[in-house]
Amino acid sequence: MKRVYFIGIGPGDPELLTLKALKVIKSADLIIYPGSLISEEMLNFLRKENEKAEFFDAHGKTLEEILEKIVKAHSEGKAIARLVSGDPAIYSSIMEHIEILREKGIEYEIIPGISSGLYSACKLGIEYTYPEISNSIIFTRLSGKTGGAREEEILNFAKTNSTLIFFLSAGLAEKLSKLLQKVYTPDTKVAILHKLSRKDEKTFIVPLSKLKDTIDKEGINRTSLIVVGKVLDLLDKNFYKRSYLYDKK
Fold it and tell me: Do 154 and 217 fall into the same domain?
């Protein structure tokens, strides 16, 4: 029997797919994709790469409906590719699939993708960890209707020398801005990155106090990241902090 593949397809640009991901997708009989998140460019590319496969849109379907589709295809000996945006390790909801597959004794494999959280650093042209300025990267989301980090957790994160990357939080921009201003000054740089790697991507660098206004003005909601931290000072300033790795001594 064939296994089920959970495949990270990155932020949207087909050229950011891994070779392994593309190899599995090209040989799949059933491709389940996130219709509300996948880019049109990516979907068209994958349809051309695998014209024989059945494409099934998971958007608007319940977990039970998706799993029913997977289990039935697996029982028929079909190769199944369950696509997730970005990387499967971050806010992909694959574990609720995996738990049921384990119960049914169905083998699975996870293939990583490029997270928008990491690609955002490429777009900004900086490194998110930098000596004495940023020791860690924290991927998080502000608590809303569907869960997330509590306010006290966010405040504790902000008090560290970390780069904070907020997923799924653009709709809570006002709440997030007011919360972060308890730690950061109103003029602290914030990066807003919308639809990264896609043809219609947008990037804004604004003061924290202008976060909500910018998101409202630009009509930004889904498929967006908010980046906060001292590391954003690297956008327009050189600090010349040397690493030990390449030091003469």
Answer: yes
